[in-house]
């Protein structure tokens, strides 16, 4: 059974609007936590009031973090605006020339611009809500302390209050981005549909791919620029503050601590938001391009063609329902409940998506349909086959997330063994951490291989694209959990700088320790979806150029070797960028400690703005070269060598980049949580020991692994693939 156009459009529009409305509701709930002493008793719970000086410090610190984040985004988006205009004109000229149609060129360029602007808006919304919610999480943690003189323990209601504030802050980004991305794509499709006949829907879908290109282009700048910023400040703050001067993390005496907290938002919130928005846009566009090649799906109606959007739309409803498990049904009452609450979100959304996807498949797809691919003569598939493809991606994403958690959470053996390795020094810590990262790639790669094999056997290339859409069907929950981590991290930094009781920092550290794990889980989810998305785009490129690659063809093999090298080049460039930017921060922090000796005893104040300015300038300058590599390689290879070599480049980049991204993200996450294990659980003597110094060095090495180079590789895979697809009509298929 298939559904009418109005029925299909109504569900997609409703899902988008519900997501945006729910994001607004979450924001209102977060805003009820007031940073003042004039709050009502119902808001204060049974808490101790803050004195005016600490209230002033809370407001000052949060304002400085917000201003620093705005300053960075303004500088970054100024560069992005120039890129959008220039690259949009290039797209218009190339597509108009290749398609012999100014309309096709203009509409592709418009889709590119809208994708880029949507990505920027998503990143900005997420970041501003994060800097709004971080101080309120700090206040919620302080107000949840048990009443009485000298009390230091959190009440069960206080745990729930603090957790819900951070979780809802992440939820604003998760649902706003999901709803906005789906709504803009739906509006573009609805308008473009009036300009093309049903027979030309394949041309229209190729034009729509510009939307994914726009999202991925901005994600490149957001991920690389934000990653360089956050890790340059973090490395500088840790090495000079914690190791050289033996002061706590986020101590207000550290000149780089504001920049460090700003970096959590521009990298882990705005960067991740742009990254996963790009994955959503690109996987959906790839599925639409491949679906439009099937006469059966086009004849079945608009609903069959819009099946990928329906999966995303109903995923929003599933994520919304599941969010109440954490905030209302099974509330967090202690530190031990946090991990269960977050894990339950991942499991619940996946389980609920199974019947939902089955219903969508039998309702909107024809019982049988033929679809073109690389299989000779195409394949004949059923709506149940399509359902299995979607669910394989959804369940595979959950498995990858859980495996990532196992390797990066200090609740499990691998990360505890990383901390144990520090007993013999920093060198053995780094050796063990890298070996853990390599080992952690095995199961995720096997899972991805099974997903690709199953989906390809059932629905050929279209099946792989559906698997990517399935993995991203719970995007709202993934982004919620990922946004939760930086909010808690900032909340702890604000508590330290405002000199709140140590018990407040203990609470935010407990929330943040799981935040680090959820961030690693989110990165695993992002890598998995990036691989499937990139393969879908590569397959769409192969279909559109009517070529197939084989490694017995020297030009394809040469391209594959070149592509396998690209992630190493990209990682080297981003790691060097962090080193350069961190070096500048280290020199400035050392200079301030040297020239202002009163900083240590509080008689002189550090200049935090100097470090913020240096981090901003360095990250903006250093993000250009890696971005240029990702953008121009497909042009150079495609036009100068040919599409067969470019197909090899895409395949080599995906295979090499997937393994490297998993290794770097998980090794960095394990190093980070090994440090948390020593600091929070007081393992191996806790802070102030040689073992702690060794684990801090390992964490410092892991910072650019997990927050710069590793996550940025996702964008490399997707960006070169979507550019290749956009250029497919311009490249001679015989080359």
From TrEMBL:
<dbReference type="GO" id="GO:0004427">
    <property type="term" value="F:inorganic diphosphate phosphatase activity"/>
</dbReference>
<keyword id="KW-1278">Translocase</keyword>
<dbReference type="Pfam" id="PF03030">
    <property type="entry name" value="H_PPase"/>
</dbReference>
<keyword id="KW-0460">Magnesium</keyword>
<keyword id="KW-0812">Transmembrane</keyword>
<feature type="transmembrane region" description="Helical">
    <location>
        <begin position="77"/>
        <end position="97"/>
    </location>
</feature>
<keyword id="KW-0813">Transport</keyword>
<feature type="transmembrane region" description="Helical">
    <location>
        <begin position="623"/>
        <end position="641"/>
    </location>
</feature>
<protein>
    <recommendedName>
        <fullName>H(+)-exporting diphosphatase</fullName>
        <ecNumber>7.1.3.1</ecNumber>
    </recommendedName>
</protein>
<feature type="transmembrane region" description="Helical">
    <location>
        <begin position="302"/>
        <end position="326"/>
    </location>
</feature>
<dbReference type="InterPro" id="IPR004131">
    <property type="entry name" value="PPase-energised_H-pump"/>
</dbReference>
<keyword id="KW-1133">Transmembrane helix</keyword>
<feature type="transmembrane region" description="Helical">
    <location>
        <begin position="430"/>
        <end position="454"/>
    </location>
</feature>
<feature type="transmembrane region" description="Helical">
    <location>
        <begin position="386"/>
        <end position="410"/>
    </location>
</feature>
<keyword id="KW-0472">Membrane</keyword>
<feature type="transmembrane region" description="Helical">
    <location>
        <begin position="712"/>
        <end position="731"/>
    </location>
</feature>
<feature type="transmembrane region" description="Helical">
    <location>
        <begin position="646"/>
        <end position="664"/>
    </location>
</feature>
<feature type="transmembrane region" description="Helical">
    <location>
        <begin position="172"/>
        <end position="192"/>
    </location>
</feature>
<dbReference type="GO" id="GO:0009678">
    <property type="term" value="F:diphosphate hydrolysis-driven proton transmembrane transporter activity"/>
</dbReference>
<feature type="transmembrane region" description="Helical">
    <location>
        <begin position="524"/>
        <end position="543"/>
    </location>
</feature>
<feature type="transmembrane region" description="Helical">
    <location>
        <begin position="555"/>
        <end position="578"/>
    </location>
</feature>
<feature type="transmembrane region" description="Helical">
    <location>
        <begin position="12"/>
        <end position="30"/>
    </location>
</feature>
<dbReference type="GO" id="GO:0012505">
    <property type="term" value="C:endomembrane system"/>
</dbReference>
<dbReference type="GO" id="GO:0016020">
    <property type="term" value="C:membrane"/>
</dbReference>
<feature type="transmembrane region" description="Helical">
    <location>
        <begin position="204"/>
        <end position="222"/>
    </location>
</feature>
<feature type="transmembrane region" description="Helical">
    <location>
        <begin position="346"/>
        <end position="365"/>
    </location>
</feature>
<feature type="transmembrane region" description="Helical">
    <location>
        <begin position="461"/>
        <end position="481"/>
    </location>
</feature>
<keyword id="KW-0406">Ion transport</keyword>
<feature type="transmembrane region" description="Helical">
    <location>
        <begin position="109"/>
        <end position="133"/>
    </location>
</feature>
């Amino acid at each position: 059974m298939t559904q009418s156009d109005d029925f299909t459009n109504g569900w997609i529009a409703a899902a988008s609007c519900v997501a945006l409305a729910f994001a607004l509701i979450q924001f209102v709930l977060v805003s009820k936590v007031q940073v003042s002493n004039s709050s009502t008793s119902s808001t204060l719970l049974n808490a101790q009031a803050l004195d005016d000086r600490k209230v002033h410090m809370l407001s000052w610190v949060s304002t400085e973090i917000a201003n620093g984040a705005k300053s960075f985004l303004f500088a970054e988006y100024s560069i992005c605006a120039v890129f959008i205009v220039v690259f949009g004109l290039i797209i218009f000229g190339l597509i108009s020339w290749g398609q012999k149609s100014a309309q096709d060129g203009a509409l592709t360029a418009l889709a590119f611009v809208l994708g880029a602007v949507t990505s920027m808006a998503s990143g900005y919304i997420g970041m501003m809500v994060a800097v709004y919610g971080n101080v309120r999480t700090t206040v919620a943690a302080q107000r949840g302390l048990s009443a009485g003189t000298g009390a230091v323990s959190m009440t069960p209601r206080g745990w729930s209050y603090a957790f819900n504030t951070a979780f809802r802050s992440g939820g604003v980004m998760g649902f706003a981005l999901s709803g906005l991305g789906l709504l803009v794509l739906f509006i573009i499709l609805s308008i473009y549909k009036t300009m093309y006949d049903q027979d030309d829907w394949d041309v229209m879908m190729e034009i729509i791919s510009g939307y994914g290109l726009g999202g991925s282009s901005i994600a490149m700048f957001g991920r690389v620029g934000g990653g360089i910023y956050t890790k340059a400040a973090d490395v500088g703050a840790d090495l000079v503050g914690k190791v050289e001067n033996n002061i706590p993390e986020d101590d207000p005496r550290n000149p780089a601590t504001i920049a460090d907290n700003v970096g959590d938002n521009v990298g882990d919130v705005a960067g991740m938001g742009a990254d996963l928005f790009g994955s959503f846009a690109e996987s959906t566009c790839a599925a639409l391009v491949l679906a439009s090649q099937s006469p059966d799906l086009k004849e079945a109606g608009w609903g069959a063609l819009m099946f990928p959007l329906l999966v995303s739309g109903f995923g929003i409803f599933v994520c919304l329902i599941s969010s109440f498990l954490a905030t209302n049904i099974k509330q967090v009452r202690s530190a031990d409940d946090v991990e269960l609450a977050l894990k339950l979100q991942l499991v619940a959304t996946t389980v609920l998506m199974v019947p939902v996807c089955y219903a969508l498949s039998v309702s909107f797809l024809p019982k049988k349909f033929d679809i073109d691919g690389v299989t000779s003569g195409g394949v004949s598939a059923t709506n149940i086959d399509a359902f299995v493809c979607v669910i394989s991606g959804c369940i595979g994403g959950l498995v990858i997330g859980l495996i990532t958690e196992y390797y990066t959470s200090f609740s499990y053996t691998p990360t505890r063994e990383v901390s144990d390795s520090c007993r013999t020094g920093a060198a053995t810590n780094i050796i063990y951490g890298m070996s853990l990262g390599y080992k952690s790639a095995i199961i995720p790669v096997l899972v991805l291989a099974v997903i690709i094999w199953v989906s390809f056997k059932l629905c050929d290339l279209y099946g792989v694209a559906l698997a990517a859409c399935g993995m991203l069907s719970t995007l709202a929950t993934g982004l919620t959990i990922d946004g939760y981590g930086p909010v808690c991290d900032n909340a702890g930094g604000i508590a330290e700088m405002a000199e709140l009781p140590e018990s407040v920092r203990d609470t935010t550290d407990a929330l943040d320790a799981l935040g680090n794990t959820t961030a690693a889980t989110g990165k695993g989810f992002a890598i998995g979806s990036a691989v499937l998305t990139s393969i879908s785009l590569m397959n769409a490129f192969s279909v559109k150029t009517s070529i197939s690659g084989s490694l017995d063809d020297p030009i394809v093999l040469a391209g594959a070797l070149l592509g396998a090298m690209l992630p190493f080049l990209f990682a080297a460039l981003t790691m060097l960028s962090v080193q350069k930017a961190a070096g500048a921060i280290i020199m400035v922090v050392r200079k301030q400690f040297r020239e202002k000796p009163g900083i240590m005893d509080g008689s002189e104040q550090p200049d935090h703005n100097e470090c913020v300015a240096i981090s901003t300038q360095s990250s903006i300058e250093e993000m250009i070269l890696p971005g240029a590599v990702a953008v121009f390689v497909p042009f150079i290879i495609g036009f100068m060598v040919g599409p067969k070599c470019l197909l090899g480049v895409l395949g080599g980049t995906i295979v090499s980049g997937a393994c490297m991204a998993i290794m770097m993200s998980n090794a960095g996450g394990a190093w980070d949580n090994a440090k948390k294990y020593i600091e929070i659980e007081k393992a191996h003597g806790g802070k102030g020991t040689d073992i702690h110094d060794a684990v801090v060095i390992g964490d410092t090495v892991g910072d650019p692994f997990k927050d710069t180079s590793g996550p940025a590789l996702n964008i490399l895979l997707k960006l070169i693939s979507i550019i290749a697809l956009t250029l497919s009509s311009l490249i001679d298929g015989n080359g």
